[in-house]
Amino acid sequence: MKTIFKSFLAFVILIFSLAFTNVNAQTSPKIKNVVLVHGAFADGSGWQGLYKVLTKKGYNVTIVQNPLSSLEDDVQATNLALDKQDGPTILVGHSWGGTVITEAGNHPKVAALVYVAALQPDNGENSVQWLQTAPPAPENGVLPPDEKGIAYYDKAKFHAGFAGDLSKEQADFMYASQGAFHAKGFLTPITKAAWRTKPSYGVVATEDKSIVPSIQHAMYKRSNTKITEIKGSHVVFISQPEKVANVIINASLLK
To answer: Which ranges carry the AB hydrolase-1 domain (predicted)?
Structure first.
């Protein structure tokens, strides 16, 4: 009788073990590498919250520091980060960073693209074309380029127009740490749009005053990007890092 009981117990343990292994196989990420690309009027420090969420879940996260001197230079900086990855990678871009990953996403290590309140031009298109497809929000504070061709965000409008759901202290830090964005990047056309050949996921920030949600929807719909709406400002990845992380995680599972 004891022998029968032990055999039955061993059988039950085996069944549970196999079931647990199967669950792990279904939920374990296929892709562990994530490269984050910031946009204009920002720098890589804004990704800190999202970095913490993803690394705690076991992802290998790299943050690109864009020089913001041209589309070509930002793509080169992103490609350098991609070269160092040890396998398939999810490439994430915010705002202007969406234009960057659209070009840099052709790198052979990029398995999928994630656009976070981001621009997503097609072949031959530039960023300004899309920014002009809808009236800007009154809070938008992008200033005309100065005599050196550099565009900045109006300090008086930065909090409401760029980071409305962050504290004033956080918005002030972001303003102080923004890079010098050479506006010619907005006029440079895409030569080969990576979203045409690779899976794409897009976060629409529903309270965005810098790239209004209707523009985000139109771009993502045109490209058959899988859309997730998240209530948040243009920097939704800072105010809602867990929700944005979930979109990246789904991309890593190729769901």
So the answer is: 34-246
**pLDDT score for 30:** 81
Judgement on whether residues 71 and 148 belong to the same structural domain of the protein: yes
Tokens 């800190």: give the residue.
Answer: 48
Identify residue 181 by its one-letter amino acid code: F
Backbone angles phi, psi at 61, to 5 degrees: -110, 130
Q: Are residues 26 and 36 in the same domain?
A: no
Kindly state whether residues 123 and 188 are assigned to the same domain. Answer: yes
Same domain for 177 and 215: yes
26 and 77 co-located in one domain: no
pTM of the shown model: 0.89
CA distances in angstroms from 117 to 19, 23, 73, 162, 233, listed in the order given: 39, 32, 22, 11, 9
Mean pLDDT of 226-254: 98
Residues 99 and 4 in one domain: no
Q: For residue range 103-150, what is the model confidence (pLDDT) as tens digits?
A: 999 999 999 999 999 999 999 999 999 999 999 999 999 999 999 999
Residue 76 belongs to what H/E stretch?
A: helix 71-83
10 with 91, same domain: the answer is no
Mapped onto helix, strand or coil, the DSSP state of residue 203 is strand
Residue 19 confidence (pLDDT): 45
- In the chain, the number of structural domains is 2
Go through 69-104 and write b for each residue having 16 or more CB atoms within 10 A of its CB, e for each that does not.
bebeebbebbbebbeebeebbbbbbbbbbbbbbbbb
Q: Which residue range(s) make up the domain with 231?
A: 31-252
Give percent above pLDDT 90 in the chain. Answer: 87
Q: 37 and 18, same structural domain?
A: no
